[in-house]
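Hi, can you check this record?
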Amino acid sequence: MALPSSLLSEEQFQCSICLDIFTNPVSTPCGHNFCIACIGGYWNSSAVCQCPLCKETFYRRPDLRINTTLREISEQIKTRICLSEECSTHPGEVCCDICTGRKHRAVKSCLVCLASYCQTHLEPHQRVKTLIRHKLIEPVSNIEDRLCKKHERVLELFCREDQVCVCQFCTEKDHSGHTIVSVEEEYRQKRAQLCKTEAEVQQKIKDRLKKVEELRWSVELNRRCAQREANHNVRVFNALVRSIERSHNELLELIEEKQRVEERWAEGLIKELEQEITELVKRRTELEQLSHSEDHIHFLQSLPVLCPLPHTKDWSAISVNSDLCLEAVRRAVSQLEEGLREELEKLPEIKLKRIQQCAVDVTLDPNTAHPLLILSEDGKQVRLGHKRQTLPDNPERFDPVGNVLAKEGISSGRHYWEVKVGEKTDWDLGVARESIDRKGEIIYTPENGYWTVWLRNGANYEAGADPSVLLPLSPKPGTVGVFLDYEGGQISFYNVEARSHIYTFTDTFTEKLYPFFSPNHNNGENAAPLIISPVSHTD
């Protein structure tokens, strides 16, 4: 009977007397198992016949028979142990070719002897002079693959033309005239290349993991911005709805009040008209009676009294105003428009608060600064000096125009930074493309890779579109906020103190962009620096 090896446990089949796997196991009447020789010897040396485990005493010695099933299982376990002890190596390790019986782990393989040796059998290769010269390598199981199939010699050379390992005989015939180096030299070179490639791969992985994190952050940022924008819009439109409902209720009350006033006024007119009608009817009756009178004297005496008509008003110009509702609607709509305008004026402030959550750290790059520009040690301020500095004329540096870029390039996501311009009379701010021409004359237009706004002569603000756009800014900005939405294709400028929008460029970006600064001339009045100021986050 064969059992799965996973079900066989050595401890379950060990004799408790000899502590080894059962040999001809027998079972006592109490149910415990022992080797037949072990239990027999135990009872022979004891005055009492009892079980060594549970100490149950038997008054007459039991007649024991071998448990054949238990014996078969014990033999299987012994066979498995013997097989596992033939080689003491772990999976993947190489066994010594010299060891007999239980094989030990090899520590070296010899390319001359074509054999692998454990530490004990390697000793002659470390002592005997003829063996010391043999080529030893880390232990390998397929040592025959190290031999040339054609010449049966060790593959100790490498042909760089054919990119194959060769023996000495191969270099004299098939690879004659080729560039031949030792396998060690080629190994060192290829390993160096491999390490370089591995480093490049690792850097690519790192860059892509960083990009994944940036994209995930952008998605999360978009989600948060969308949620904040939705919340702000709900607030604004709820205010508008409340304003409309309030105006509607006020309009209804106004119409009802106007209706009541007009009704009271009309009722007064009707009452007055009815009184005049009553008097006129009375006079008509009197005149009618007088016209039928045959009394000449009475007729002539009464006629002068009845002929003059009673005093009445001229009612031709009097009417009820039917346009009172229309006028009320006009006033209500006008008030509603005013409320709507007030609510909409709040939106730029709300939008700027949301954009400020995208604030990033921006630092000026001295390698791009014109030699006249003076940068602060922390890279947060720039002003124009009077003396040209001796600096290397590298391709990244602006010359002769006094500009400077930030160190941080932007190729994705949303980014916001603020620049304090203070009372400066001239400055340029914005974003520039990486591939811009930094030498010679520069024209600030999107076509040339610049998206900027500027101030000239302390009063003239313009956006560098094509053609440029005049910007009537009031009040003047003391701090300018710049917002770049790379995927959205927008570059926007804000007056931070006034919480108002200045100008927005719309474009499609295909390469890295950099924050752009120019403090312009230093004539004393414009000597103050441009300062990259920390963004005050507001909820």
About this structure: The radius of gyration is 54 Å. The first strand starts at residue 25 and ends at 27. The chain has a mean pLDDT of 84.
